[in-house]
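Lab manual, section 2.4: Encoding a predicted structure.

Procedure: take the sequence of the chain (57 residues), apply the prediction step described in section 2.3, and record the output as structure tokens. A sample record is shown.
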Amino acid sequence: MDRSKVVAIITGAISILLAIAYLIIVQILDYRDMQPAPIMQIILDLGIGHWVLGIGH
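Recorded output:
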């Protein structure tokens, strides 16, 4: 078998393995139960709680 054919087969195998790994990672991340941040925490993190809530004059 020519060297170019061996390189093509190895490159194709690596490509298929990377594609399968990518699909597995996407599936794992998709199963996570992502909860949105509470609105109160966002307001306090932005530093606008003092005038939105009337606290910390």
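Check your result against the sample. The mean pLDDT is 80.
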